[in-house]
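Example 3.2
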Amino acid sequence: MIDPKKIEQIARQVHESMPKGLREFGDDVEKKIRQILQAQFNRMDLVNREEFDVQTQVLMRTREKLALMEQRLSALEEKLAATETTTTDAE
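Structure, written as tokens:
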């Protein structure tokens, strides 16, 4: 979720950049801009920085576990291949 303070800041900036005639409508325009921005951000299904960082850490740990599992699998495959070679040689 986007920080409401950021939305207010953006709404204020949009309001201040509007022509003077429109700005004279005052708070109503700024409130409407804020509502529109909030609705659009919600539709975009954005995540905040904290959620992003948490998911990044989860992904890094998952990649580390995957790398370890790949190493273990390779070692087991080598061991199996060596066992099969020994068994074939004994026959």
